[in-house]
Amino acid sequence: MIFEQFAAGGCQSYLVGCEKHCVAVLIDPEISLVDRYTAAAARDGLRILYLIDTHTHADHFSATQQLAKRLSVPIVMYRSSPAPFVNLRLDDGEMLAVGDLRFKVMHTPGHTKDSMCLLVEDRVFSGDTLLIGGTGRTDLPSGDPDELYDSLFNRLLLLDPATKVYPAHDYQGRSHTTIGAELTSNPRLQRRKREEFVTMMRNLELNMPTHLTEALRTNMSGGKSVAQMLTEASEAVPFMSLEELKAQCELPANNLIILDVRERDAYQQGHIPGARLLPRGQLELRVNEDLPDPTQRILVYCELGRISTLATATLRQMGFDRATALDGGMKSWREAGYPVQSGIE
Ligand SMILES: [Fe+2]
């Protein structure tokens, strides 16, 4: 078995492959590691066959859709997953064949209704059902402490105590544990009576994960996160540095249109000398009037450099082939002590 574990901000993901047949799966891939996964698979001579999410993640962004598009391979989840883009839905007891490896599904609801664990050879990928020294929380959408009790005590913990456990999260840099070690030392598993366990889970009072709504929105719908929108836009446009823009402004004659896409009041308080105002919210509405010549060179800026990147990508999609985004924004322009003009256009 070829096995590699990846960590990103407490999220654990796994590349697991069959050496003989040069095929592999990715389990719980995270969006920031997309290039690392594909690079690792290429380095190991593995073709990724399946992208598996052990459950609907509420606390991080799944990379399954991006990788599915890039690699043209199916996304695999438990049968009841609410995500519409799942290509292969598995039921309890079913297996995925990956070369000589067999990944067996164990439906373990509790953290979410669609949670599953995957058993292969000497190990189990436990998702957020069982963590090292902890368990998945049960207070997020579709969580249920009663179901988690059954999934743990009447299913997962009945596995051979020597079974290695690889969870979807660990915030302390640990790689894995075993069923036996967790039975002995996991504090939550010492509450072996259902009522005690359920009461404890109901009273954990954990903070809501950051990006909860955005993670659920994107992981359940197939939509993009704000970070993805920005990454894609920044890959589609060229940038100009603050220094270069300042030098361009100082030229006696230049035909660069400097476009301020912030709101009117921000523009009035201070803008780059010579800049025109075209707020992002009005871009598509006013573009034909305000920018009649699509061959002109346009430099777009905003306050921080993010909205301007999106606006530049939009302009390029509309045919403004020389639209460029400022690498930075008005904030860094002011901080650099560069000239600022105030007042209306
Ligand atoms: Fe989770």
Automatic annotation (TrEMBL):
- One biological process GO term for this chain? glutathione metabolic process
Q: Where is the Rhodanese domain?
A: 252-342
Q: Which UniProt keywords apply?
A: Metal-binding
Q: Which domain of life is it from?
A: Bacteria
Which InterPro entries would you find in this protein's record?
A: Metallo-B-lactamas, Mito_Persulfide_Diox, POD-like_MBL-fold, Rhodanese-like_dom, Rhodanese-like_dom_sf, RibonucZ/Hydroxyglut_hydro, Thiosulphate_STrfase_CS
MF GO annotations: metal ion binding; sulfur dioxygenase activity; thiosulfate-cyanide sulfurtransferase activity
- Under which name does UniProt file this protein? MBL fold metallo-hydrolase
Q: Which organism is it from?
A: Pseudomaricurvus hydrocarbonicus
